[in-house]
Write a structure and sequence with these properties.
Blueprint: H1 26-30, H2 75-94, H3 102-109, H4 114-129, H5 133-154, H6 157-172, H7 177-192, H8 199-229, E1 232-234, H9 244-256, E2 263-265, H10 269-278, H11 282-293, H12 305-321, H13 327-332, H14 340-371, H15 383-395, H16 399-403, H17 408-423, E3 425-429, E4 443-449, E5 455-464, E6 474-479, E7 490-498, H18 511-528, H19 547-552, H20 559-565, H21 577-585, H22 591-608, H23 618-628, H24 645-648, H25 659-676, H26 684-695, H27 703-711, H28 718-724
Parallel strand pairs: 5-7
Antiparallel strand pairs: 1-2, 3-4, 4-5, 6-7
Length: about 725
């Protein structure tokens, strides 16, 4: 089951700067950098840009961000200047005396925000990779300005009239397919965001967006503050059960925090998860668990409960202005699911099977705990610990033993191998100093075509956790592919929070973390494989964009990767066949836990966005709704409400967290297409269809149509159920 943050949580903007307002400035707050970067449009080429963050990118590879020249003092003035420049260009388009056409309206909007797009690349780094109190202060100061800027675009009546005219003309006389798609997305984006409201409603709509912008920012910053502020220290007498590699990293984490001689569990999943899995110290497990699952829920000025209540009320009021009964109805109208009912139908089809499996898992764990003489009842902070022991007993599979064969550097090579086999890509390290980076840990590779040597783009990797970096893993792009105004190559990145090892130690990660690493790389390949003309078509439908990345996880367990790249970090010997057999035999182990913790969050997301929001206490609401769903006492939501950043630090996944499972239906079904092919997961013909229909088109092709072109039919839920070892619906 998917545990990833991604392209929101990819946390990236999926549309060009002309669309910032269309998702409530969410991409600005979250990571907005999936924008065109270098190059200057005809309309702004004469403007002298003296602000470093707005300047056209120069240097190798078609221009790269000057991360070595980032200066926070440039941010606020650069933002104000960039917004003013963009709004001036929007006014030129809106007030063009010529009749509205695709070229002078829709196409012109593709060119109009490049300086500001470049600035938001740097914003994304400060927001996600290198946050500081100073940046967060600026972020809070400008959130209202950003919202007002977005509203000035979507509420520009003359601009929308021109967009609507082009849209209506295209219904009578269709354009080229990708142009038709661009016009449709542009028109729907404005219409969905209040462009046709009367003046009074527009004013209120803008006021709501402005307040939401601040609330989303405050929510995210409160979570980050709790991630930074809660660290669990332990000493030599409390290390029982923990692997040496973990202890070495924990010792370094403590030393970095000026507590030499101790060990530190930081308040991030990559540090928490292995501690809860292996530590024999139950009281410490409870403390670490409590710290992690209480983020944003600790009272005081960093508590997010009141913020959640206000966000929900405002979202409900805003969509009511547009005539919708609830936020989810508004959100899903242009997604693959189309309606909340269809999304709920999918989740409700899986939920009972997941609960039944949890009951079996808990019974196994409780029996083992009793057998070991542990006088306990399984609690949430015990689940990972006893699940690991059951795994070892049932399958003779030790996660720590598996970890010895999962070296970060080897996994990178494995991903490059898969990219070469499927996409014909070659990854070559870029010499240090050639491309500016924002932190010494960041590494860069050039991506080229294996046959022609043609430059495709760059891949940046920021692998390690640190103070000021948000938790989880995500992918983003600093420059997206387009060809309409000269070919632009891709600048993509992956970001993780692996615990940095002690000097000279290898980075060993869990199987789950290895899957996550492949997952995020799938997003990067989606960026790199883009073959679209227009920047806005590099986006995607939220319940589809996780599909490509989830699918790439499947290559981790292919024989070609296992035999060549999963080698012991000390002996260099390949992982034994019998250990792989155990891994595959245990593939559906703990599926109850992983499915239930995810689905609980997805169902709660939908509950929050389909009920009356006049007055809601999030803590009480969460408890009551989970009780109605028969949520097991031994598991909590993967993202409890007060730190559920997917849905409350922006709107990218709001009423859309179900999208991971929707995409997983596609993933399981597509994986069976490879499994059934003569060449298996490296079958040339299926791989060609994969790239042609599922990666290269991005959002230039309707996702349902794209999938049918790949598979020859719509996806079925059967493969998903088989993957989890659940009964297939009859």
């Amino acid at each position: 089951m998917n545990r990833k943050y991604t392209i929101d949580h990819m946390k990236t903007g999926l549309l060009s700067l002309s669309f910032i307002a269309l998702i409530g400035c969410a991409q600005v707050q979250e990571n907005n950098s999936n924008q065109q970067g270098s190059g200057t449009s005809a309309t702004n080429s004469s403007v002298a840009l003296d602000n470093q963050l707005l300047k056209e990118w120069d240097g190798p590879f078609g221009g790269v961000p000057a991360f070595d020249k980032m200066d926070l003092s440039d941010l606020k003035p650069g933002l104000e200047k960039g917004m003013a420049m963009h709004l001036a260009e929007i006014d030129k388009i809106a007030n063009n005396p010529e009749p509205a056409t695709f070229e002078n309206t829709i196409l012109a909007m593709q060119r109009d925000a490049q300086p500001l797009g470049r600035l938001f690349t740097f914003w994304g780094i400060w927001s996600s990779n290198m946050s500081t109190g100073e940046f967060r202060k600026i972020q809070g100061e400008v959130s209202g300005q950003l919202s007002e800027y977005g509203s000035k675009i979507t509420q520009n009546e003359r601009l929308f009239k021109r967009i609507k005219k082009v849209y209506q003309d295209s219904q009578k006389k269709p354009l080229a397919p990708d142009q038709q798609r661009l016009v449709q997305l542009t028109y729907e984006g404005f219409a969905m965001n209040g462009a046709e409201l009367d003046e009074g409603a527009k004013k209120r709509y803008a006021e709501i967006n402005k307040e939401l912008s601040k609330l989303h920012t405050d929510f995210a910053n409160n979570v980050l503050a709790d991630e930074e502020g809660y660290v669990t220290y332990f000493n030599d007498s409390q290390t029982s059960g923990l692997p040496e590699s973990y202890l070495n990293a924990a010792a370094k984490a403590a030393e970095d925090r000026e507590n030499p001689g101790l060990f530190a569990v930081t308040n991030s999943r990559s540090s928490m998860d292995p501690f809860l899995t292996f530590s024999d110290e139950r009281d410490l497990r409870k403390k670490v668990w409590t710290n992690y699952y209480s983020r944003g829920d600790n009272g005081g000025d960093k508590d997010n409960n009141a913020i959640i209540s206000r966000i929900l009320v405002l979202r409900d009021e805003r969509v009511a202005l547009l005539g919708h009964d609830n936020y989810a109805e508004w959100r899903l109208q242009n997604r693959m699911a189309k309606t909340p009912e269809r999304a709920l139908n999918l989740m409700n089809a899986v939920w009972p099977a997941a609960l039944a499996r949890v009951e079996e898992e808990v019974a196994d764990m409780q029996a083992l705990a009793d057998q070991m003489g542990h006088d306990i009842t399984i609690e949430p902070w015990d689940y990972r610990y006893y699940a690991e022991k059951v795994r070892k007993q049932k399958y003779d599979l030790d996660s720590n033993e598996v970890k010895q064969y999962l070296q970060l550097d080897k996994l990178k090579q494995a991903m490059f191998f898969v990219a070469g086999e499927l996409f014909n890509y070659n990854f070559t390290p870029v010499k240090a100093g050639t491309v500016p980076v924002f932190h010494p840990d960041v590494e860069v590779w050039e991506v080229t075509d294996l046959d022609s040597g043609e430059h495709i783009g760059l891949w940046y990797l920021d692998a390690f956790g640190r103070k000021g970096k948000r938790s989880g893993a995500w992918a983003t792009s600093y420059r997206s592919h387009s060809t309409f105004d000269g070919k632009r190559t891709v600048l993509s990145s992956n970001n993780s929070n692996f615990v940095k090892p002690a000097p000279g130690e290898p980075v060993l990660i869990s199987w789950d973390d290895a899957e996550t690493f492949f997952h995020e790389f799938g997003h990067a390949l989606h960026f790199l494989a883009s073959n679209v003309r227009y920047p806005d078509l590099n986006g995607g439908v939220r319940d589809y964009t996780e599909f490509q990345s989830q699918l790439l996880e499947r290559w981790l367990s292919t024989d070609a990767v296992i035999n060549k790249y999963l080698v012991h970090h000390e002996t260099g010997k390949p992982i034994p066949a019998e250990l792989i057999a155990k891994i595959k035999k245990a593939a559906t182990f703990n599926a109850g836990f992983s499915t239930t913790e995810y689905l609980a969050s997805a169902l709660m997301d939908m509950q929050y966005h389909t009920v009356d929001q006049k007055s809601i206490d999030p803590d009480k609401f969460e408890r009551e709704k989970l009780k109605m769903l028969n949520m097991p006492d031994e598991i909590v939501m993967r993202h409890r409400s007060p730190h559920f950043g997917h849905i409350f630090s922006g709107e990218g996944y709001a009423a859309a967290y179900y999208g991971y499972m929707w995409a997983d239906v596609l993933t399981s079904d597509a994986a069976e297409a490879f499994a059934e092919a003569p060449g298996g997961f490296y079958d040339d013909e299926v791989a060609e269809r994969l790239v042609k229909y599922l990666f290269a088109p991005r959002n230039s092709l309707d996702p349902a149509e794209a999938y049918r072109k790949f598979r020859g039919r719509d996806a079925k839920i059967d493969a998903l159920m088989r993957d989890r070892g659940f009964p297939v619906p009859q």
